[in-house]
Amino acid sequence: MKTVLVATDFSENAKVALQLAREIAIRYQAKLLLVNAFHPPVIDPNMPIDISVMMSQEAEKVAQEQLALIVKEYQQTGVNCEGIVRVGAAADVLLDEIKTQKPILTLMGRTGTGGWLDKLFGSVAATVIAQTDSPVLVIPPNVEKLEINQILYATELEHVEEDALDFVFDFAEYLGAKVTLLKVKEDFQVDVFSDEAFIEAIGQRYAGKPYTLKTIEATSVTSGLQHYADEHDADLLVMATRKRDWLAKLINPSISKEMVLSTHTPLLVCHIED
Fold first, then answer.
1. Are residues 176 and 97 in the same domain?
2. Residue 112, in any domain of the structure
3. Residues 154 and 134 in one domain
4. Cα dist. 150→124, 161, 225, 233 in Å?
5. Where are the beta strands (DSSP E) in 89-235?
6. What tens digit of pLDDT does each residue of 127-159 get?
7. Residue-range definition of the domain harbouring residue 263
């Protein structure tokens, strides 16, 4: 059975991720798996060990109870839903569960405090994106409700992108969304291969699929994508990456935090096999 995995820290933004994950699971007839990575609370080192252990156990119990309530609520609406609370660093827990469960999609919501917690979860998202081949959808802060009707897919038109495009068109069909394929050409960028060959291949493979293809110029790929997404009310921005292409630069540890934290459009990262 297909699985949709969603990470939750019980924040308001995580609720948006949960709601979208529930909708996707229903449409795919998939199991919905909720994962909470539990961090024991920071304890005063001068506190007696037995009290420290008791406080940690109590905090873990609260997390399990919170997750159980959500799972029960979803199960009562007919959703095949399970929940897992695991002790450990969030990125490690999620990567381990993705490897074990092999979900068709992983969803993560991040907080919007702008402080260290926001940077933490941004870092978690970037780490997960960089270290898994599974599609990951990150929902930025301040998204109160998410309905995906317009999908903006960033294409370079320099490589075969069938792995990512197959997933995106399938995803769009399940959600009833429209797809725009957008190439952002940076200033002074030189095309290694002709765009026309890739445009023709896409047209042949996805004949009958509702999509449009656009090319724009911008000073940078990221700014161009965000500007276009804002102007055209895109609900979801999709990026496909392989280790050696231009987009892979966005997923390295030094740049990914800024990228994940700066975008205010939900971001789906798919991976292309070499």
1. no
2. yes
3. no
4. 26, 20, 14, 7
5. 105-109, 136-139, 150-154, 178-186, 211-218
6. 888 888 899 999 888 787 788 999 999 887 767
7. 150-271
Each residue's pLDDT tens digit, 201-218? 888 999 888 899 999 988
pLDDT-based confidence at residue 47 (cuts at 50, 70, 90): low
When the pLDDT of each residue in the chain is averaged and rounded to a whole number, the result is 82
264 with 180, same domain? yes
pTM, full prediction: 0.84
Structural domain contains residue 145 = no
Q: Do 86 and 186 have their domain in common? A: no
Q: Is pLDDT above 60 for 176? A: yes
Q: Is residue 257 part of a domain?
A: yes
Is a pLDDT exceeding 70 seen at residue 52? no
Residues 6 or more apart in contact with residue 73 via CB below 8 angstroms: none
Q: Which of 139, 159, 189 lies at the terminal end of a domain, its last residue? A: 139
Whether 56 and 48 have beta carbons less than 8 Å apart is answered as no
Give the residue among 187, 176, 190 at the shortest CA–CA distance from 224. 187
Q: Which of 139, 173, 190 is the last residue of a domain?
A: 139
The SS3 of residue 202 is helix
Q: How far is CA 78 from CA 23, 67, 179, 215, in A?
A: 12, 17, 30, 43
pLDDT at residue 123 tops 90: no
CA distance 57 to 55: 5
Same domain, 117 and 220: no
| Distance spanning both ends of the chain, measured CA to CA | 27
